[in-house]
Design goal:
There is one protein chain. This protein is an alpha+beta fold and 194 residues long. It has helices at residues 2-11, 35-57, 75-83, 85-92, 130-156, 158-163, 166-193, and strands spanning 66-71, 94-100, 110-115, 118-123. A 4-stranded mixed sheet has the order 2-1-4-3. Helix 2 (35-57) packs parallel to helix 4.
C-alpha cells in the first residue's frame, strides 16, 4: 500500500513534488532518550513478568486475581513501583498490591522471586490447594528424575557411547542437563511450598 502512504505523507504539508520513497530514512534524536525512564520501566516490566511467571508456576487460573507483595529496601525502587502500581495491577492481575520496605510478618506459603533488589511474593493461602499442587509437582519431579536417570544410564553404557554417532551422544547429554535443571527447579518450587 505504498500509494496510500504517499498520499498521507503528501497531505501532511510536505513540499510539493517531494516523493516519500526518495526521502532519507529518519534518524533518532538522542535527546529523546531518557535512560532513567527506561530503567524505571524495565523494573516495572520485570516485576510484572515475575508476577506472571509465579502465577503460572503456582498454576493460578489466568482470570483469577491475586494478592502480591513487592519488598524493597531502596526508596527509589519503591517509588518507581508505586508510580507503576496501576500497570502492575492490570497486567499481572493483582487485586491487592503491597509495596513495602520491611515485612513485619513472615508470609508463609508463597511463591517468590527476585527482580534486582526487589523481592516479589504471591501468598498462596486461599488461592490454590497447596497439597494438590505439591503432589502434582512431586509427581513431575519424580518423572523427570527417572528420565534423567535413564539418560545417565545410557551415557554410562560404554556400548552406547562407542557405537552412537557424536550428535546423538551430544543430544543425550543436552537432554540430561535439561532434565537435571528441570528437576532442580521443581525441587525449589516444592521447597517454597513447605
Amino acid at each position: 500500500m505504498p500509494h496510500i502512504t504517499e498520499e498521507i505523507w503528501q497531505s501532511l504539508a510536505q513540499p510539493q513534488g517531494a516523493v516519500l520513497a526518495r526521502q532519507a530514512y529518519p534518524t533518532p534524536d538522542p535527546t529523546f532518550i531518557n535512560s532513567d525512564l527506561e530503567q524505571s520501566f524495565q523494573l516495572l516490566i520485570e516485576a510484572i513478568r515475575n508476577l506472571r511467571n509465579l502465577r503460572a508456576e503456582a498454576e493460578i487460573k489466568p482470570g483469577d486475581t491475586v494478592p502480591a507483595i513487592l519488598h524493597s529496601q531502596a526508596a527509589q525502587e519503591r517509588d518507581i513501583l508505586t508510580q507503576g502500581a496501576a500497570y502492575i495491577r492490570d497486567l499481572a492481575k493483582v487485586h491487592h498490591l503491597e509495596i513495602v520496605s520491611d515485612r513485619q510478618e513472615e508470609v508463609g506459603q508463597a511463591m517468590a522471586s527476585v527482580v534486582g533488589t526487589v523481592e516479589v511474593l504471591i501468598p498462596l493461602s486461599g488461592l490454590v490447594d497447596i497439597a494438590a499442587l505439591s503432589a502434582k509437582l512431586e509427581k513431575k519431579r519424580t518423572k523427570i528424575a527417572a528420565e534423567a536417570q535413564s539418560l545417565q544410564n545410557r551415557l554410562n553404557n560404554p556400548g552406547f557411547v562407542n557405537k552412537a554417532p557424536a550428535e546423538i551422544i551430544q543430544g543425550a547429554r543436552a537432554a540430561l542437563a535439561e532434565a537435571e535443571k528441570q528437576a532442580e527447579i521443581l525441587q525449589e518450587r516444592l521447597r517454597r511450598l513447605q
